[in-house]
Specification:
Helix content: 55-70%
CATH class: Mainly Alpha
Order of helices and strands: HHHHHEEHHHHHH
CATH architecture: Orthogonal Bundle
Strand content: under 5%
Shape: globular
Strand order of the largest sheet: 1-2
Oligomer: single chain
Structural class: mainly alpha
Length: about 200
């Protein structure tokens, strides 16, 4: 197989992977996830460089919010237990961002054409929001637990400790922190390899 043909095959495989939702076994391992979707790795790296939020933190947020599903939405309420009703909010996409918060992101980041169903835009949004929490609430960039509480409650709610009586939310924030910690450990073992261009990967 020629190098040129191999490059086309690699590109087609990546496009096919990006068209589907990754499996739970893939999302459990950030190295495997990024190997399957190399464009996601580069998008996450760009978001890190722009907003100074670690890649494992941003990826843990997206794993929690949508399970890496591009068009995820909150489940509908059920009337009488079985009739589909309205959704609890207009959150949508990889980051489960509200329309109003997404509009603010578009204005402040300059990313006017961004879409909530686009991974690169969503990971940039998550890092942008968390950078705001670092500034407003003095949370460390690697503190996924408290960053998630601020993400869910807003920084005003976080500062008022509106999360204090919500055990389910505290448990979820711990899950996000655990995922971020696992992703960080995994990424240390594969980040250098992921950063190689396609030709070096082909020859290695």
């Amino acid at each position: 197989m020629s190098i040129r043909l191999a490059a086309w095959v690699l590109l087609l495989l990546q496009l096919a992977a990006c068209a589907s939702t990754p499996s739970a076994s893939t999302t459990a391992d950030i190295c495997r996830l990024f190997e399957d979707r190399r464009s996601w790795f580069h998008a996450a790296q760009r978001a890190k460089e722009r907003w100074d939020i670690p890649v494992p933190v941003s990826m843990a947020f997206i794993e929690q919010e949508s399970g890496f599903r591009a068009r995820a939405k909150p489940p509908r309420k059920r009337i009488l237990g079985f009739i589909p009703g309205s959704r609890p909010s207009n959150a949508s996409g990889y980051a489960q961002a509200l329309e109003s918060t997404w509009d603010q992101y578009q204005r402040e980041s300059g990313n006017r054409l961004s879409r909530r169903s686009n991974f690169a835009d969503a990971v940039d949004f998550v890092a942008w929001y968390n950078r705001g929490s670092v500034r407003a609430s003095r949370i460390a960039p690697s503190d996924a637990y408290n960053l998630y509480l601020a993400y869910h409650e807003g920084n005003g709610g976080f500062q008022r400790r509106t999360y204090a009586g919500k055990k389910w939310l505290l448990d979820t924030a711990r899950d996000v922190q655990n995922t971020a910690t696992r992703y960080e450990t995994q990424l240390r073992g594969c980040e250098r390899r992921l950063g190689r261009n396609w030709l070096l990967r082909l020859l290695s």
